[in-house]
């Protein structure tokens, strides 16, 4: 299957992106948006836990395209418009899994792990016939990107990791307020209840002073109207807990890597990013003063500059 053989349609969200669906050999169906010149090097963006591809801001994608790259963003399995997993079996004790996870102990029982989600990315790269692929992964997406770079090294030229972790044991846990905002339940599952819950989450985990309440409400409403599947968020969380530490896998990564973290990240404190950079050979680490666990407009030009300079440095 080639990119030209796919049925591409104009994205209803971004006038510089086209969208399509890709059925992978493992039966997962991923909803994808692509923008930029196909002849240019490609940056594949992998988003985090429970986050649709639209959480990659249009401004971020547009600036990457203007810098000379084709950009691909997609909904991970179980979120957005990609295929959903119907879980079978008994309900897992999430708190027990989290406790074992923090100690570096193995967990089982999730319908899939981050290794399966990394296979999705690898198969997507093949299906789109992408060349010169550079990965940028955020949060859980950064964990997936680490696995892709280690297990499918021939497909990846460089690695950009944003407010992520390798989940090695004894890393500092999320601050209680941020953790409870992430795993807490909304007051209701109707549109207004979910929007209210999302705004509260954005405020708690976001960059202090840079969370726009009006834009946050508009964004949350757009995401809810596009897709609402809370079971998928839980299953992605279980995938993290049942994947465990990536420390030994990080030692296999050979691609040039830059790890970027916000100094005000209270969901995954900066020690997580530093641990990733320490584990990957010759990885660079950059701490962004004042940034939290989000991509506010204020920091986007700086982030684009960091990631594109990393890629450009690979060119002789």
From TrEMBL:
<dbReference type="InterPro" id="IPR000073">
    <property type="entry name" value="AB_hydrolase_1"/>
</dbReference>
<dbReference type="GO" id="GO:0046503">
    <property type="term" value="P:glycerolipid catabolic process"/>
</dbReference>
<dbReference type="InterPro" id="IPR050471">
    <property type="entry name" value="AB_hydrolase"/>
</dbReference>
<dbReference type="InterPro" id="IPR029058">
    <property type="entry name" value="AB_hydrolase_fold"/>
</dbReference>
<feature type="domain" description="AB hydrolase-1">
    <location>
        <begin position="41"/>
        <end position="295"/>
    </location>
</feature>
<dbReference type="GO" id="GO:0004806">
    <property type="term" value="F:triacylglycerol lipase activity"/>
</dbReference>
<protein>
    <submittedName>
        <fullName>Pimeloyl-ACP methyl ester carboxylesterase</fullName>
    </submittedName>
</protein>
<dbReference type="Pfam" id="PF00561">
    <property type="entry name" value="Abhydrolase_1"/>
</dbReference>
